[in-house]
Write a structure and sequence with these properties.
transmembrane, mainly alpha, membrane, transmembrane helix, single chain, globular
């Protein structure tokens, strides 16, 4: 149950990343990569704090990033279809 909770909290972190990325749409690519690394670090710290296991933290982060990317790509695909 903790793994599920960590994945949900990390999805909230990825939503925050999407918002920050939207705010910095005119920034350089290198700055966006740094912001992504900061959010990955936050997600890993949160997962490690709650799960107390490095392997389960990596698993939870991989699951949450995969779900996030699926919806992110899906929404761009729908946006292109609508326009």
């Amino acid at each position: 149950m903790r793994l599920y909770m960590v994945v949900m909290l990390q999805l909230i972190i990825w939503s925050g990343y999407t918002f920050v990325e939207w705010l910095s749409k005119y920034d350089q690519f290198s700055i966006k990569v740094i912001i992504l690394l900061i959010f990955v670090y936050f997600a890993m710290v949160l997962g490690n704090r709650l799960l107390h296991s490095n392997m389960r933290t990596v698993l939870a982060t991989f699951i949450s990033i995969s779900v996030y990317l699926f919806f992110y790509i899906f929404m761009f695909y729908i946006d292109d279809l609508i326009r």
